TrEMBL record:
InterPro entries: STAS_dom (IPR002645), STAS_dom_sf (IPR036513)
CDD domains: STAS_anti-anti-sigma_factors (cd07043)
Name this protein carries in UniProt: Anti-sigma B factor antagonist
Superkingdom of the source species: Bacteria
Organism: Nonomuraea africana
Amino acid sequence: MNELQAATVGDFFAQMGRVLADRPDVVVVDLSRVAFCDFDGVAALVGAYRRARQLGTRLVLAGAQGRCAHILHRTGLDQILRPVPARAEAAAAIPA
């Protein structure tokens, strides 16, 4: 998915629903290929974060860059969701 916006959040929620159905300890959302994220995308990330918390799952954002990283910063979500720079760092967040 190259964009996380109104037209794509439905797919994002469907994927998150399938992943969260198994109630994993940690879910890594790889944003490294997301070139554009608008406020609908931000709302989708917040929704995924809330749903994960309800299920006792830790949501980790990885690889946000460019405009996507910028909007996470502008909205303050980088302070709440604490994205990591790359998937390698996200792997460290997964308990052994």
